[in-house]
């Protein structure tokens, strides 16, 4: 994409001279005959650089430069002042009013091309950096929106099943603490947190008559209940953003000895995130009040976790969890 140069000179001959020098360089050239027209065109076309003559009737190049620098919309457009005045005072005045460069007339066409190339290149880099910063800001905002959506889904799930209200937040936080003991990197911790918040997403597909049943489930009802990890996977796997977080929703009911569901995975076949989450999930369930039973005492729950080491839970995970709770 070619750079746009706005040439500002009240004399036709001056504009023609600049056009003859620059038209073969691939620039898109625009012309203005006076200061007011230059300011209007700058706002309209947002040129990459302005070549500005000083000695013009009505409004001098210095005044045009001051107006442009005072307007936030166009203030950052680079300006090269061209003038027959070659004294030191004129050059300093040009820089003082905001010009980026100063070239005396008659100018050397090769010097002008070189100066213009340098400024347009710098301006292009500046715009690239600005666009990159904008993209990063949008990406940050998008990530924040994603996280807020996941938090909202999590709260909605807890509200649907009031006996576990606050459960998702608690287990997500505790799982992160346990994962830290295994030295898991920060990027993976983000996925673990998301997966923990969404671990029961599949229960959306479970009928209320089963999900809210106050007593024990029948064998037929358990068949349906055990489908919720698969439901979670089916719902979330189409969202590419959540692919790295699927291990927990899909595998948190697998057991170390292969007796879990939905795929009867065994040992290290079970993703580490799911192995960590499994013990946290059971701990929170045991130590929380439920309609069909009171919360277990801490000692009782810890004894159960120890008993399930090598059965439901990976032994190393049990050891680290006990350290964490202690």
Keyword list:
alpha/beta, 326 residues, Rossmann fold, Hypothetical protein af1432, rod-shaped, 5-stranded parallel sheet, 7% strand
Question: How would you describe this protein?
Answer:
By secondary structure, the chain is of the alpha/beta class. Helices cover 56% and strands 7% of the residues. The chain folds into two domains: 4-133, Response regulator (Rossmann fold, 3-Layer(aba) Sandwich), CATH 3.40.50; 161-325, Hypothetical protein af1432 (Orthogonal Bundle). It has helices at residues 12-22, 35-45, 61-70, 88-96, 109-160, 167-181, 186-197, 208-211, 219-225, 228-236, 247-251, 272-286, 298-307, 315-325; strands at 4-8, 28-32, 49-53, 79-83, 101-104. Strands 2-1-3-4-5 form a five-stranded parallel beta sheet, with helices on both faces. Helix 2 (35-45) runs parallel beside helix 3, helix 6 (167-181) runs antiparallel to helix 7 and helix 6 (167-181) crosses helix 12. The protein is rod-shaped and about 95 Å long. The two termini are 64 Å apart. The mean pLDDT is 89.
